[in-house]
Amino acid sequence: MSDANLLATEHDDFAQLVRRALRNRSFLVGLCITLAIVAIALVSFVWTPYDVTKLVISDRLKAPSLDHWFGTDHFGRDIVSMIMEGARNSIAVAFVAVAIGIIIGVPVGCLAAAKQGIIDEALMRGSDIIFAFPALLSAVMITAIFGPGALNAIIAIGIFNIPVFARVARGAALSIWPREFILAARASGKTDARITLEHVLPNIANLLLVQGTIQFSLGILAEAGLSYVGLGAQPPNPSWGRMLSEAQTMIAIAPQMAIAPGVAIIVTVLGLNLLGDGLRDVLDPKLRGDR
Amino acid sequence: MSKHTILKITGLDLDIGDKSILRDINLTVHAGTVHAIVGESGSGKSMTALATMRLLPNGAKPSGEIQFQGRNLLEASEPDMCVLRGDDIGMVFQEPMTALNPVKTIGEQVAEGIRWHEGASRMDANDRARRLLDRVGLPEKKFALTRYPHELSGGQRQRVVIAIACALKPKLLIADEPTTALDVVLQKQILDLLRSLVEEDGMGLILISHDLGVVADMADNITVLRNGLIQESGKAVDVLHYQSHRYTRQLAEASTHVPAWANRKAASGETPLLVLDKATKDYPGRRTGLFSKSAPFRAVDAVSFSVTAGRSVGLVGRSGCGKSTLARMILALDQPTSGAISLHGIDTATARGPQMESLRRDMQVVFQDPYGSFNPRRTVEWIISEPLHTLPDAPSRLERRERVLEALHEVGMTKDALSRYPHEFSGGQRQRLAIARAIITRPKLIVADEPVSALDVSIRAQILDLFATLNDHLKIAFLFITHDLAVARAITHEVMVMDEGKIVEHGPAGEVLRHPETAAARALVDAAPDLQRTIATRLAAAN
Amino acid sequence: MLAYAARRLTAVLITLLAASLIVFAVLQIVPGDPARLMLGINATQDAVENLRQQLRLDDPLHIRYLTWLADMARGDFGNSYTYSVPVRELINERIMVSVPLALMALFLSTCVAIPVGIFTASRHGTATDTATMAVTQFGIAIPNFWFALLLVYIFAITLRWVPAGGFPGWQAGAGPAVQSLILPSIALALPQAAILSRITRSALLDTLREDYIRTARAKGLPAGRVLWHHALRNALIPVLTILGLQFAFLLAGTIIIENVFYLPGLGRLVFQAIQQLDLIVVQSVVTLLVAAVITVNFLVDLAYAWADPRLRSQKR
């Protein structure tokens, strides 16, 4: 992957960026989907078609209709309303997990690149160790001790994101450090920390942004997986993964229950991936059409 | 010498997208001769070569005729071209470091073409590859077929590329800037090799170069290109001797340009500014096993010299001789392992706080690459004012801007550059900006690491003029690090020759460059292409 | 090469130790008495004491860690509290489901993805390329357990070709056992294959832009031969990285997929253990899986050195 091309490419005017963005189909589609999902999640705070905490047994397992667009589940809850509230949960978990990854991982990566030598070695070996714990295994351990909960998913996915961002930031920063403008800054006596802030970070920000989008979409998938096996959000908070695990028990009689949450996950992840690919192209036009 | 035509290009036009790259190119290459194509960057000289190989980038539309062995290559099918490439036409590229496949042995890569074109057995092909490598100067003892490219230096890799290109005794060899990435001594070796191949095998060679000195020595015929148009073509000696075309003359003058420099005759000052006392740098040995290390590598070996205020000193040497490491130590970017370096009597290794800041103020740097030496995401004003943070009192915004404007003025640029970004400027303008950044703190010393070697000759002449002016006006001392003796000749008072980490010769520039005493210095001087001297020798030989 | 392998092996051993320390430490921060937690509040004081003895809870921490390590090195993982059998037996039995499943999925995804990647790269920019890439974009977005549900619904419930889940065990012969792993491995392989084929394609395209590709073309080799003989091995280097990383995801995926198909693998074991608070089982399985991830990454490192001679002779 020639992600290095995203680094320190020529500076573009904002207007140029916008023009390129408006011409990039995958960016536009991805952005629209992402904004729509976020909007749905926000709307669910103030309004959903039905109250998802109320169980209406008489309405159970209804097929899709005008009243219930995607039908109802085995407790008679409206699936559209549950999808809306589930979006909230998915986005929150994935977002906080990415934030954890960036806030801890990026400084670690930058420090490793700036200091080199033994500090670099130690930090990267540390990240190797964390890397050996897929989110699911961390979640298993956390749940075994503290019991299940949505917070487990955030922590488990967030921990896994730390070495991801540390490695990306380090790799990118390492390719910036030997550049002559860094030498010039060092020759004018700037400290490593200041050089990182003024020179390195602005030049690796693009790459981190794209990686952030990728980790966001991976986070949505991971959260769905965790809550599907019961390690994530707990009842009564709706989540897409748990909706699917409930649908599984009903799959022979009510397959429609599995459709809506699955489609919600696919559309969200697809939207984020398109947004990431689009961003990559918009920020670095040299790569256009190659991915 | 047989003079039959092997390649005849007639009316070659080339467009990439809407851009016209080449217009009406005509040239003829004879067997056993060297045809040089000369031009500055963007002249279309490489594209002419790639068009002949039919290896143009996607979207390129050539038209016209390229006659080779009785057929028009532009109309040949891709399978037909595959038969020709590597067999009848070979090509050598500019960048030897990336031209070889890193995961295949050099033997495999040389033998591959032989096996492909002639269906030779593996053993037979290996035998022939072995002989080829011997011939290009890579003897079996040190360069077995099983070596990988990363185990070879740049010059050695270029020899492998030449072996690949000449494996099947092509009728035509195209060499695109084959020595630009190498130092002068290696350059001479590679050029000698190419010449012997031409003489012994009777092939035609198209030599593409930006360097008139190289061309003067090698070429029988010459074509001068500019912006995709032929300026002049003819016999090399005539073209370069009479210089009847304006552009040719311009190129020739620029390549040997010596700036008008009032301070040139200035006597050495009294007060030493920069003093090195047995400065040494060791790099720790590479780990060879779990617990063993190879011996440390001594990059700079007990170097002592001093630079007095206002003097311009050249540091010349082959690539890898330690001159860049020395520069980094002087700039206090690297600590010497032993010995001392001081500026104004302040030791660079131990200076801290305000002392360090004053050191940084008095010593600035200009790098080689005008593209890599600016943060692409900052404006020119931000970039040029960066060294100002070493001032004891932070200047106000207004003061900052005034000083930036002053520096811009000094390097011949105007204030509309302020809010623009580096990519909006050409290579020469960028080098001016780099110099503006270096002089903004009114330093006493500027260390310039190959400051003009990435520039076209005409731009190079202007930048050398600028350095001369700065030395006259601001009395800044320079340490020029370069492998290009023409630069040293043009702009230095004294020259030091560095070899394997040591300073082997030090004296007045004219003296050292005219009468080198040590072997290392002589090798450099002998290998350096010199347009006038070469033409004179060739003319004398012809008469 | 040997020196390189030895150096990597040392690093791997250190990583393994550190990872085991993390697993051990995390499971020590159980609030309150672990024995009490595992047995529940209704357990008698005697039972709790007994378990404390068995877990050596009265020993100092470092002693407990070292004994645990030494025991594991001997293959003694302790006894499961809920099953009252050695954890080793449980794992031996369950691993015979999880590992074949993961390997089948890895095999499937690699066999599909690498040809697809090569094919699309060689037809870069054509409609086939664009269409295939659109399909892989979907493949990445589909959660494997949802895809598994879909497969169950179509092939087990609607068409009734295969059972909806369960595992007949290897003693009944390889045929039925493999058959019951087919749907799960397809479900696991799909998203992995989508990612891997995209990576293969873009790595190949990047490689095809390198200078040495031009050198090979100038030798007179046709585009196809250049792709197979020069580009592919270089492009494999980034592909290997992703393969190594994917193994971790594949393991996690296996654990989830086992739940869809009711397969008695390590995943089911660990979830039952969580519900029953059988910390010994959780600790053992997690350690084992983490060790597997580290080992696979070590193998990938060795494969790297095979693919890249620069690494083999790297003396750092």
Topology of helices and strands:
The complex is a heterotrimer of chains A (291), B (543) and C (316).
Chain A: H1 14-23, H2 25-46, H3 79-115, H4 117-131, H5 135-146, H6 150-176, H7 180-187, H8 192-228, H9 240-249, H10 256-283
Chain B: E1 5-16, E2 19-30, E3 34-38, H1 45-53, E4 60-68, E5 71-72, H2 78-84, E6 89-92, H3 106-118, H4 122-135, H5 154-165, E7 172-176, H6 184-201, E8 204-209, H7 212-218, E9 221-226, E10 229-235, H8 236-242, H9 246-255, E11 272-283, E12 297-308, E13 312-317, H10 323-330, E14 338-343, E15 346-347, H11 353-362, E16 363-366, H12 380-384, H13 397-410, H14 427-439, E17 445-449, H15 457-474, E18 477-482, H16 485-491, E19 494-499, E20 502-508, H17 509-514, H18 519-527, H19 531-542
Helix pairs in contact in B: 3-4, 3-5, 4-5, 5-6, 6-18, 7-19, 9-15, 13-14, 14-15
Chain C: H1 2-28, H2 34-39, H3 45-54, H4 61-73, H5 87-122, H6 127-141, H7 144-158, H8 174-208, H9 211-218, H10 223-260, H11 266-275, H12 279-307, H13 309-312
Helix pairs in contact in C: 1-12, 5-6, 5-8, 5-10, 6-8, 7-8, 7-10, 8-10, 9-10, 10-12, 11-12
Give the oligomeric state. Answer: heterotrimer
> Largest sheet of chain B, described in full?
6 strands, mixed
Q: Roughly what fraction of the amino acids of chain C lie in strands? A: under 5%
List unreliable stretches of 5+ residues of chain B. none
Q: Please tell me the overall pLDDT of chain B.
A: 89
Computed Rg of chain C: 24 Å
Biggest interface, CB < 8 A: A-C, 47 and 59 residues
Pick out the low-confidence regions of chain C: none
Count of β-strands of chain C: 0
Q: Could you say which structural class the secondary elements and strand pairing of chain B correspond to?
A: alpha/beta
How much helical structure, as a percent, in the residues of chain C?
over 70%
- The main sheet of chain B orders its strands as 6-7-8-3-9-10
Category from helices, strands and their pairing of chain C: mainly alpha
Shape assignment of chain B: globular
Count of discrete alpha- or pi-helical segments spanning 4 or more residues of chain B: 19
Give the radius of gyration of chain B: 25 Å
